[in-house]
Amino acid sequence: MPRLLEVSKDRSGVYPTLAEAIGDAADGDTIRLDPGEYVESVTIDGMSLTLVGNAGDDAETAVRLSGGDGYEPTIQARGTTLELQDLTITGGQGEALKVQRGRLKVTGSTLRAAHAPAIRLADGVEFELSDVEVDASQSGVMIEDADGTLEKVTVTRSADDGIVVRVGARPTLRNCTISGSGHRGIYIYESARPVLEGCEVTGSGATGVLVGSRCIAKLVRCRITDSRGNGVEFQAGSEGELTSCTVEKSGGTDVQIDDSASVTQSGGEAGKVGAAAAEVSSADPEKVESLLAELDRMVGLEGVKAEVRSIIDQIQVNEWRRRAGLNVDGMSNHLIFAGAPGTGKTTVGRIYGQLLAALGVLPGGPLKEVSRRDLVGQYIGHTAEKTAAVFDEARGGVVFLDEAYTLTRQAGSGNDFGQEAIDMIVKLMEDMRNEIAVIAAGYTNEMRDFLDANPGLASRFVKSIEFENYSADDLTLIISRMMESGDYRLGDGAEDLLWRHFASIDRDVNFGNARDARKLFEELRKIQSQRLRGLSDRPSMDDLITITAEDVEIATKARSA
Known about the structure:
Elements: E1 4-7, H1 18-24, E2 29-33, E3 36-39, E4 42-45, E5 48-53, E6 63-66, E7 75-78, E8 81-85, E9 88-90, E10 97-100, E11 103-107, E12 110-112, E13 117-122, E14 126-135, E15 139-144, E16 147-156, E17 163-166, E18 172-174, E19 177-179, E20 186-188, E21 195-197, E22 200-202, E23 209-211, E24 216-220, E25 223-225, E26 232-234, E27 239-243, E28 246-248, E29 255-257, E30 262-266, E31 269-270, H2 285-297, H3 302-323, E32 334-339, H4 345-358, E33 367-370, H5 372-375, H6 382-393, E34 398-401, H7 418-431, E35 437-442, H8 444-451, H9 457-460, E36 461-467, H10 472-485, E37 489-490, H11 494-504, H12 514-533, H13 541-545, E38 546-547, H14 549-560
Parallel strand pairs: 1-2, 2-5, 3-6, 4-7, 5-8, 6-9, 7-10, 8-11, 9-12, 10-13, 11-14, 12-14, 13-15, 14-16, 15-17, 16-18, 16-19, 17-20, 18-21, 19-22, 20-23, 21-24, 22-25, 23-26, 24-27, 25-28, 26-29, 27-30, 28-31, 32-35, 32-36, 33-34, 34-35, 37-38
Helix pairs in contact: 2-4, 6-7, 10-11, 10-12, 11-14, 12-14
């Protein structure tokens, strides 16, 4: 028989964390969470489960799930039947919610993720989202090879695209509102076939609704206004319908349809129809200084910060020379980030891309983090197609190629298409040099092999920036910041033990830098929870927030064993 499992940060006799409740849950159970903030990331595999927030409407009684600074999704589900009700879910470095396969229903919830899509629906999951708010995320909703319905979903203030529909996905978006997206409001590509009914897309930083090649989109009673670029754009080879739609106040063309696209229009209103107007980028000095200040706040990385500042200085001076009518040499925006993992390469890459946009060098767009699997196909020609799609999705922003060296040819591997990806990257770096920046990242020695894979590859990059391992001081500060953001503090003697631990770790190829600090932080929270549950009395406020020297000693000994 299905059970009700309760989670609370304050009550005794119930589960203190969501992870523990999920660990004990059986198929069909419901987990109800009391108001409060739960800083943890959980994974649910292959079961039917309902998560319900036991809270009111105001902020003080909200149920808030947060991934902290972790890279894993706050909630990740695979092959489950999952229902979420009345929750506020925030991603750390990853998604707030990621669901693959199975079924998903979300109602009355708010989601956000500053460094990833707030919601990622993939790999055939069937979904139903209603009365959901997505706010202040890198992208709002990413739908990949998945079908379902978004109804009365509000997506606001996305840094990049509001909603992305790709890889053959066929969702229905009904009465949704997408506003204030930094790039496109809705982006449809890779053979996707969505239906948009009664949706409103306003204030997009680029095109309001962009329908890519080989996609089919049906828009009925939609309103697309105040787009900085085109209102609605159908690219070459796309198909679609515009029925009773209003498209107006676009910076470019209200409705832009490629000559090879097949689109029917009936009813509605559209102003400018035809050739698109060019988008103009302009410098934003205040934004530049704000981004440089954000860079400076990062722990350590003094050499990296100096290198990035020198590039920005050169770009700024070149712009002043250009305005003065002086000769300016062409300058690539592409970089190599070399060094160990966990040293902030992705974060620096995001800031760098935003700096280029703030300086008017790039139009402004997403940071698209990709690896070999996102670029390399299974047959001749497939790799070039996948690589081109990635660059198109990142247009205006940054392609961040992690572990780039994995694309190099493998000895004796005749069917490896990594080299095809490299050759295509070289071509696109040149063809799109004014629309995109490429950052290739990986271990220092292996990156040399990557640069040797194509005669023109090394010359495409303006500079190689070395990311050194964090020092013991840096890692101690990083974990201290994690604790502060999670409402924890270090007790007497604990900080010194942490420093000694980080100072003693070998900086070999397995060293994860900030990732190791994150893992240690999670272990410390676990040890503290075990200690507090063993107390005879309810823990005091000081008990709840303090990580003791004994906690640190237990955790570091276990990791050193």
